[in-house]
């Protein structure tokens, strides 16, 4: 398969993944806002689900790239850390809201760094600038969530806003990829 064809196929797959991640983030955030600060099994499921979907989406991206890019340490680290975050968030949700915010914040920092690094490496695929910005914002937001958790304040519904913002960046990336793919096919 030629480089141009594989680049177009990769761009189309990434675009589809980004649209799905956008839709999921909005739905998930709506559920988090609806549940609010009411700790319980639904909140735990939601908190565990988000990093698991993140890990699944990153795995889908890795599969779509095949062996053409070689090792992908940033992406693989993100998958492992997202799985660990799901476990940590499940546990933290049974402890307290500050524990949830600390776990979420730590995960947001680390996953933001890996997203930033992966998007920089993938920038030739197109549509990555929003994900570079999103990774940087994730690091800053994660630090804010962790600080809230350490101070014993904040609410879990704040992570819903984080998800919405992340979803918007995935939507922007998907739109940019759509534009780039139309230029290539024209």
Protein topology:
Blueprint: H1 3-35, H2 41-65, H3 73-92, H4 97-121, H5 129-151, H6 158-185
Helix pairs in contact: 1-2, 1-6, 2-3, 3-4, 4-5, 5-6
Write up this protein.
- With 186 residues, this protein is mostly helical.
- The protein has one domain.
- The chain is 83% helix and 0% strand.
- It contains six helices and no strands.
- The chain has helices spanning 3-35, 41-65, 73-92, 97-121, 129-151, 158-185.
- Helix 1 packs antiparallel against helix 2, helix 1 runs antiparallel to helix 6 (158-185) and helix 3 (73-92) packs antiparallel against helix 4.
- The two termini are 20 Å apart.
- 41% of the residues are buried.
- The model has no long low-confidence stretch (mean pLDDT 87).
Tags for this entry?
single chain, mainly alpha, 186 residues, 83% helix
**Number of helix segments?**
6
Rg from Cα: 17 Å
> Main β-sheet, in a few words?
none
β-strand amount: under 5%
**How many domain modules?**
1
Compute the number of strand runs: 0
Mean pLDDT: 87
N- to C-terminal distance: 20 Å
The coarse overall form would be: elongated
* Helix/strand order: HHHHHH
Oligomer: single chain
Low-confidence stretches: none
Structural class: mainly alpha
Helicity, in percent? over 70%
């Amino acid at each position: 398969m030629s480089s141009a064809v594989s680049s177009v196929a990769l761009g189309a797959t990434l675009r589809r993944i980004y649209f799905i991640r956008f839709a999921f983030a909005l739905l998930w955030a709506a559920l988090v806002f609806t549940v609010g600060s009411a700790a319980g099994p639904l909140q735990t499921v939601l908190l565990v689900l988000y990093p698991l979907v993140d890990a699944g989406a990153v795995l889908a991206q890795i599969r779509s790239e095949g062996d053409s890019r070689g090792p992908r340490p940033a992406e693989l680290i993100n998958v492992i850390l997202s799985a660990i975050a799901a476990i940590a968030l499940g546990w933290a949700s049974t402890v307290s809201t500050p524990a949830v915010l600390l776990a979420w914040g730590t995960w947001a920092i680390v996953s933001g760094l890996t997203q930033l690094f992966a998007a920089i490496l993938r920038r030739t695929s197109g549509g990555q600038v929003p994900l570079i910005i999103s990774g940087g914002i994730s690091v800053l937001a994660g630090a804010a969530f962790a600080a809230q958790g350490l101070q014993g304040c904040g609410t879990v519904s704040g992570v819903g806003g984080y998800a919405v913002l992340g979803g918007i960046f995935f939507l922007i990336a998907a739109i940019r990829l759509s534009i780039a793919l139309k230029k290539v096919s024209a």
